[in-house]
Amino acid sequence: MIADKYVPATEHIRTALSLPLLPLQYLVSAPIQVIDKVTHLLSTQDALRKENIDLKAEQLLLKAELQRVAAIEQENNHLKGLLKSSQQIHGKMMIAQMLAMDSDLATHQIVLDKGSHHGVYVGQPVLDAAGVMGQVIQVAPLTSRVLLINDAKSGIAIENARSGLRSIAMGDGYSGRLRLLNVPQTADIRTGDLFLTSGLSDRYPAGYPVGRVLSIIHDPGLPFSAIVLEPSAHLAQSRQVLLVWKEKI
Fold first, then answer.
1. Which residue(s) pair with 155 in the sheet?
2. Distance between CA atoms of 167 and 99, rounded to whole angstroms?
3. Which pLDDT value is given to residue 113?
4. For residue 139, is it left (φ>0), alpha (ψ between -120 and 50) or beta?
5. Which terminal CB of the chain, N or C, has fewer other CB atoms within 10 Å?
């Protein structure tokens, strides 16, 4: 070591001796390099896995936000439809929110967030943006119960917008549609015809959509045709409805 420090000639000897030791140095350093690479790889995989989890969480939040925006847009469009529909009503009206719907498949009734405290009364007609929904059958101070037009206990006086034919539509609780009563086989009714409220009863104002003819069955052995209507109102979807007073109170 002293000679290597003070005698320049020993540098060549040290260089010559270091050549045989190179493979040993590579052999010793190889595991360390492998460990470093594996550690780096594992660290990178952990970072990628964490980034992937964060991206999935962010994607889920964005999807939820999009659904919320879509729901708000849908509700906004529905309120616009209610506003347009309300312009045709002569008299007092009020927007109500649906609180609950009966779970019984044979019963079609809903509960609204308006009651006698708001002037709601039994027999009051209820509409949505697309047509007639039903009538109030029970009133509490802050809530009311509505019988929908497709309930088996419901009946509504209607007329054909094309031919002027008048009839009574009864609810079919199991199918969720309407059936016309006592329509002769020769009656002028076609598939797709629109039926409106006739205004001949005290319940509903005249001229509001009730439903379109979905099917007509003529059985020669029966005196009347079997006619089914698809309700115009969105009975299973509307959350905001219109409570209507035929005259100002």
1. 170
2. 32
3. 93
4. beta
5. N
Give 194's strand partners.
Answer: 212
d(CA 185, CA 170): 18
pLDDT for 32-55, tens place per residue? 666 666 676 667 777 788 888 777
> Tokens in use for 87?
């312009």
Q: How far apart are CA 198 and CA 229, in angstroms?
A: 16
* Pair 92, 248: CB distance under 8 Å: yes
24 by Cβ neighbours in 10 Å (0-12 / 13-18 / 19+) ranks as: exposed
| Domain coordinates in residue numbering, the chain | 2-83, 155-231
Q: Minimal CA–CA distance to 108: which of 95, 130, 82, 126?
A: 126
Report which of residues 56 and 94 the model is more confident about.
Answer: 94
155-231 placed in CATH 3.30.2420.10: no
Instruction: Give the residue from 138, 169, 156, 150 showing the smallest Cα distance to 106.
Output: 150
pTM, to two decimals: 0.64
